[in-house]
Structures are given as structure tokens and as C-alpha cells.
From TrEMBL:
Record keywords, A-Z: Coiled coil
The protein's name in its UniProt record: HYDIN protein
SUPFAM superfamilies xrefs: P-loop containing nucleoside triphosphate hydrolases (SSF52540)
Domain Hydin adenylate kinase-like: 158-196
Length: 197
């Protein structure tokens, strides 16, 4: 039975002394799992042909591809957890509003809000897709050198401003960690420039 639901009958005759074995990728669990991992690694840019480093018979996919798959699974789980937390919070807020309306004459307790911290993984840990990284490792290309070249080709400047005690320093530190960038305070730069002249 194929994907369209059509059935076919195959007749095999064996004139030889040795048995004939049939192998179907549709029933090979390892193949199906690796196919799923590779599709996730390629993303929406699904190319028909790509190269992977050679592997021994019965070996697994390159570690870069497997690590990327595990990271994608963790990210998906984190997103699901954050979505569940947001839904629970909105339900709690709706219940609190209904309770407040019911107790219109009395004082209602203040709503409790909890900020969910966001800790993104740094972008500089990953250069290119996992298949490219696996091929680079196989060919002996140093990804650190590629990273330095990438930094020289492009840059980013982010200016974080706002009122006092708004969390600018924390946001700037998180962005610096995320982009592996230098942190400069404009006040400090101006003070150093004045002191040096």
C-alpha cells in the first residue's frame, strides 16, 4: 500500500539456492527517525540533495545533527511550557476579574503577577546549519576561524535607553550575552573621553 492508498501485488520467483530478503524503509525505525532528524535539521529550505560525512555501517548521524535535534526538541518543550504558563496565567487573571466583579462592594486582593525570565541561548554557539558544521568538521575546517570571519563581515549595534530603574543594564547584558558583543555604557565612554583630554 503506498501513500495514496493504492495496493499492488508483487510476485517474486527465486530460481536460486539462497533465500531472497526484502527490506522496506517504511518499516525501518532507525531510518524513519534519522529521516525526521534530517528534515528538522534542513528546516524549510528542504533541498533534495545534500552531503553528509561518510559513516561506518550501522553508525549514527553526525553529532552536530543529533545535538541540533536535541536542542530543537528542548526549544519546542520550552515553548510549550511557556505557552501553558501563559494560558494558566490568563485563566487565573480571568478568574480574578470575575471574583473582583463579584466582590464589587468589598476590597479585592491585588493581582499577583510573575515575570517569566527569558534566557536565550547565545547565537554565536551555532554557525550555519548542523549539516554544514558536520561537513566542516569532517573536512578539518576550523569553525572558530569561520566565526571570526563572520564577525568581521557583519556587526550589530544596539542602543538600549529608557528611564532610570527600567532594567536597561539587565537588558543590555542579556543582549551582549546573546550576540557575544561588547558592552559599552555611553556615560562611561563620555567620562573616559573627558578624562583623557
Amino acid at each position: 500500500v503506498d501513500g495514496d492508498g493504492a495496493e499492488a501485488t508483487v510476485v517474486v520467483k527465486n530460481p536460486c539456492n539462497f533465500p531472497i530478503e526484502f527490506y522496506s524503509l517504511d518499516f525501518d525505525e532507525q531510518y524513519l527517525q534519522e529521516e525526521k532528524i534530517l528534515r528538522m535539521a534542513l528546516g524549510s529550505k528542504c533541498r533534495k540533495n545534500f552531503f553528509l560525512p561518510p559513516r561506518a555501517l550501522g553508525g549514527t548521524l553526525p553529532r552536530e545533527v543529533l545535538e541540533d535535534y536535541e536542542a530543537q526538541k528542548r526549544l519546542k518543550a520550552q515553548r510549550a511550557e511557556l505557552k501553558a504558563m501563559a494560558q494558566a496565567r490568563s485563566r487565573a487573571e480571568a478568574e480574578a476579574e470575575a471574583e473582583a466583579e463579584a466582590k464589587a462592594m468589598g476590597k479585592a486582593a491585588p493581582a499577583y503577577h510573575k515575570a517569566v525570565p527569558f534566557y536565550p541561548e547565545p547565537m554565536v554557539k551555532v554557525i550555519g546549519n548542523p549539516i554544514s558544521r558536520a561537513v566542516m568538521r569532517h573536512l578539518g575546517i576550523d569553525p572558530a576561524a569561520e566565526r571570526r570571519k563572520a564577525r568581521q563581515r557583519r556587526g550589530i549595534v544596539v542602543i538600549v535607553h529608557g528611564p532610570p530603574r527600567a532594567g536597561k543594564t539587565e537588558i543590555a547584558a542579556t543582549l551582549c550575552y546573546y550576540y557575544d558583543a561588547a558592552y559599552l555604557s555611553i556615560d562611561t565612554v563620555v567620562k573616559e573621553a573627558i578624562a583623557n583630554h
